[in-house]
Amino acid sequence: MTILEITIRTIAGFVTLYILARILGKKLISQMTFFDFVAGITIGTLTGAIITTKGLMAVKGLYALALFTLLAIVLDVIALKAFRGRKILNDEPTIVIKDGKFLGQGMGRARLNLDQLLMQLRKKNIFYLDEVEIAFLETDGTVSVLKKPENMTVTHKDMKIDSPSRGLAQTFIIDGQVLENSLLAAGKDMEWVETTLKTNGIDDVREVTIAQIDVQGKVFIDQRKDQVDL
């Protein structure tokens, strides 16, 4: 293949892959099922083959890529709309711990060994099995845990402490630039920004890395000079 042909194929493959990825929708890596993972790898492999395989016509390759993506979308729709289809396509969570005891049958079905399960528990700050009432291996490979009541974290509600919400933080300055929409949402104006900066000993907005305000009016400002070198 000539450089021009490789360039054209690469651009076509990149654009097609980007469009198909947007069509497939947003899904966090941690939320992907095993099939989602395999489908993503397959789509990437097909794109690579379209770009580098000399004997493969680009149009046919792009058709195969679009068809595979369409099939993946169809399966996603079936899983979304039909409960039975979802159970068949995505499987269902598996109980791996109950009342502090490993369930060998569930772990065997999930092909999960003790070391892997203990690692997942440590990531959730659980170091003792007797703290666990029940644990599920989810279809995306993560472990969900319900602690026994006596091991649950005490909340402000449990202690009858009134904790007013800070609401959604409005970031009104990023990299020295004032975000007018966020400022408007917070019910503030430029005059307030200038006054707030001066109160904090800041003469130039460009000195600010980020500034936020919560619904209670509490302001957080991080200056460039405050950044820590690792």
From TrEMBL:
The keyword Transmembrane helix applies. It is a multi-pass membrane protein. It is found in: Cell membrane. InterPro entries: DUF421, UPF0702_alpha/beta_dom_sf, YetF_N. The keyword Transmembrane applies. Its main location: membrane. Belongs to the UPF0702 family. One of its GO terms (cellular component) is plasma membrane. Residues 86-213 form the YetF C-terminal domain. It holds the Pfam family YetF_N. The chain crosses the membrane at residues 6-25, 37-56, 62-80. Keywords: Cell membrane, Membrane, Transmembrane, Transmembrane helix. It comes from the Bacteria. This is DUF421 domain-containing protein. Residues 4-77 form the YetF-like N-terminal transmembrane domain. Signal peptide: none annotated.
